Amino acid sequence: MNSFLNVLLRLCLVCCCVLPIAGCGDGAPRFHNTDISGAGYARDFALLDPDGNTRQLADFRGKAVMVFFGFIQCPDICPTALQRAAAVRRLLGDDGERLQIIFITLDPERDLPEILREYTAAFDANVLGLYGSPEKIRETADAFRIYSRKVLTGGSYTLDHSATTYVYDPEGRLRLAVTYQSTAKSIAEDVALLLRTPSNNQ
């Protein structure tokens, strides 16, 4: 009986020593939102800001970046997503300065540079609106797997489109896909994790 108890005791000691290592030894961050690290899409863009400068992800190296596609006349999804993005910056406190929010218009025919500037500034001075030719926007949306389609409404039109927000780490790598239903708190916690995770620790 003593020998049986000794074996049990040794097994317990092994479990106590090994389990904590197995639980946190891989070093991989645990996100609330969908981890898509290493995905082969949504790698970069080359679009114009309201001043006519070409902007790419590399311009924001050292910051986390949130990218959302939409259009100014969107009645609910786009303003809600941008309000949430602004809330994420507030929740980050001082680290909010290390988050860049980017809004890419899917409606460049109507979302002209000055209108785009005014629209994004209404949510947060940090939000940067980007545009391009209809062909360039279509190419970029396809590269990001963003669906959009014009829907005629009387003498005008609206757009059906994807509502996914992409999040990049400070090295410019795609890390997260955020759904429309995600909360600002969950996103802020994930961004904070990206900001403090070493670049070689994915």
Secondary structure: elements and pairs:
Elements: H1 2-24, E1 34-35, E2 47-48, E3 54-55, E4 64-70, H2 77-91, E5 99-105, H3 113-121, E6 128-130, H4 134-143, E7 148-153, E8 156-161, E9 165-168, E10 174-178, H5 184-196
Parallel strand pairs: 4-5, 5-6
Antiparallel strand pairs: 1-10, 2-3, 4-9, 7-8, 9-10
Helix pairs in contact: 2-5
Q: Would you kindly provide a written description of the structure presented here, covering whatever features stand out?
A:
There is one protein chain. The chain has 202 residues and is α+β, with helices and mostly antiparallel strands. It has a single domain, classed as Glutaredoxin. It has helices at residues 2-24, 77-91, 113-121, 134-143, 184-196, and strands at 34-35, 47-48, 54-55, 64-70, 99-105, 128-130, 148-153, 156-161, 165-168, 174-178. Strands 1-10-9-4-5-6 form a six-stranded mixed beta sheet. β4, α2 and β5 (99-105) form a beta-alpha-beta unit. α2 (77-91) packs across α5 (184-196). The longest helix is centred in the first third of the chain and has 23 residues, at 2-24. It is globular and about 55 Å long.
* Total individual domains: 1
Corresponding CATH architecture? 3-Layer(aba) Sandwich
Poorly predicted regions: 1-25
Given the helix and strand composition, which structural class is it? alpha+beta
The first-level CATH class is given as: Alpha Beta
Integer average pLDDT: 88
How many helices in DSSP terms?
5
Secondary-structure element pattern, one letter each:
HEEEEHEHEHEEEEH
